[in-house]
Every structure is written in structure tokens, then in C-alpha cells.
Amino acid sequence: MYHTIIIVGNLGRDPEMRYTPSGQAVTSFSVATNRSYTGNNGQPVKETIWFRVSAWGKQAETCNNYLRKGNKVLVEGRLQADPTSGGPRTFTRQDGTTSANFEVVASQIRFLTPKAGDDDGGVAAAGGAEEFAHPAGGDEEIPF
Asked: Is 39 part of any domain?
């Protein structure tokens, strides 16, 4: 069986890089995707969905070095389900409302925000699926 997800959005904050006990680099960052449509009442509706992305190995180091809050990225990867519920991870916000966090383990990341003086439009890849696969150890090695 196989599944993949592709999201295009903007980073909500600067990436955070950590290392597993075995020395594997992992970088986490949040990506907001936006959708606009007209509701049943004829009013415009704006919808934002947040994804928490994890990148591993050299891809994690590249993301940490070059991505910043507000940058546009394309992320291809797989959804990581909450082990207890099998769905998105849910949490309670400080105001008491419940929210969900969709987690994506990246297999490929493309930087879509152009750099100053960049001739190729700023589209750069940060690794491929084979080179930056999720470590075999699974969730046990995630340091957060």
C-alpha cells in the first residue's frame, strides 16, 4: 500500500533542527495552506490548514540553513497518524478550544521563494525520497 501528500504553503515560523540520540538530524517546521471559496450564503470564506513537517538527514540540515518564516515551499511526503487515535494529533489550545495538527514526514521539499539574484526563480530541491527516507527506528528516535 502507498500514500503520498503534496502541500504548497508558507512557513509559519523558522525551522527548528534537533538531533536524535543516534546523531540523525531532524528539522521541524509548520506550513500553512490557504483556500478561498464562496460559502452557501454567498460570502467569501478563507480557510487555513496547518501542517507540521519533519525532514530528516541532509534534507533536515538544508531546510534549517535556507528556510525562514514566510518562505513558500512545496512538500511531498506521507501523513503521520497519531498512534493512539489513528488520525491527526489533537490538542487543546490555551483558550480551551480543540484543534488538530496534521503531521507530514517529508520525502522531498522544494523551496519556492526566490533568493535575491537567483536566476532559476528560486525553485530548489532539498533531497529526494530515496536519499532522505524516515529512519528505520520510527517515532522512538524523535527527540520532541
From this structure: no
Structural domain that includes position 23 = 5-34+44-138
The answer to the question of residue 78 being in a domain is yes
pLDDT at residue 134, as a whole number: 40
**pLDDT tens digit string along 34-62?**
999 999 999 999 998 999 999 999 999 99
DSSP 3: -
Whether 17 is in a domain gets the answer yes
Beta strands in the chain, from DSSP E residues, in sequence order: 5-11, 16-19, 25-38, 44-56, 72-80, 89-92, 98-111, 124-125
> Average pLDDT, stretch 86-106?
86
Overall number of domains in the chain = 1
Three-state DSSP class for residue 63: helix
Residue 29 lies in a domain: yes
Indicate whether this model's pTM tops 0.85: no
Contact 132, 105 (CB under 8 A): no
Domain harbouring 81, CATH code:
2.40.50.140
- The Cα-based distances of 98 to 39, 91, 131 in angstroms read 23, 6, 37
